[in-house]
Specification:
Length: 220
């Protein structure tokens, strides 16, 4: 009887023991399928592995470039004074041009008719001519000075340069006009429809007027 009990116990230990221990170890496993990258380690819980081809998400911060602003041009008090002188003197330019054209035309008519020129007209013509020369001398100095000082200012730089070049060209024309004075006794100056004195004077007046209006309208 003891031999039978011994054989039965031996059979339970050899056959049922391993199967019973395997059942116990499998009871702790979850019934659902595990996702990839998750590994169960007995007696240690669950460890999550990150695949090698993936990296943790990093916040993407866009690099913001600072806004570029043109450097401010700091003009001194002298620039402002010259600018006011230049601007206010320019207001007298067109009236002086108009008066000079009227007086000059009257002188030309007298010369063409062979009459003695009126002393008052000649004096007025000369005074207006000197006034125009003085005006352009003042505006040339103040304008060129401020043009050099504002050379680094990009605002309307091309307009200022074109205005200055046209006015300097008109200056040269007025100097030439003064050098070619009308002389009715020798048949020069006003004595003729296309006299050089009148032609150069009107051309210079036209260039200066166009430059003045261009700056008056464009520099706003």
């Amino acid at each position: 009887m003891r031999n039978k009990v011994g054989w039965i116990l031996l059979w339970v230990v050899l056959v049922a023991g391993p199967a019973f221990s395997q059942d116990l170890s499998s009871q702790d496993l979850p019934s659902q399928d595990l996702p990839s990258g998750v590994t169960f380690v007995p007696d240690a819980g669950v460890s999550v592995e990150t695949p090698a081809d993936q990296s943790p998400a990093q916040p993407v911060v866009a690099a913001q470039q600072p806004a570029v602003h043109p450097a401010a041009i700091d003009y001194g008090h002298g620039y402002e004074v010259r600018d006011k002188i230049h601007k206010y003197a320019s207001y007298t330019m067109l009236p002086m041009f108009g008066a000079q054209i009227i007086v000059g035309q009257k002188l030309r008519n007298e010369l063409d008719r062979g009459e003695d020129t009126h002393g008052g007209l000649k004096s007025a013509h000369s005074a207006l001519a000197m006034g125009i020369v003085g005006l352009f001398a003042v505006n040339s100095v103040t304008g060129v000075w401020n043009l050099v000082e504002s050379r680094k200012d990009p605002n309307n730089s091309k307009l200022r340069l074109a205005h200055s070049l046209m006015m300097l060209g008109a200056d040269a024309g007025f100097v030439a006009t003064a050098m070619i004075t009308p002389d009715h006794e020798h048949g020069g100056g006003f004595s003729g429809q296309n006299g050089p004195h009148r032609t150069i004077a009107l051309t210079s007046i036209g260039v200066a007027t166009a430059s003045y209006l261009m700056m008056l309208i464009g520099d706003r």
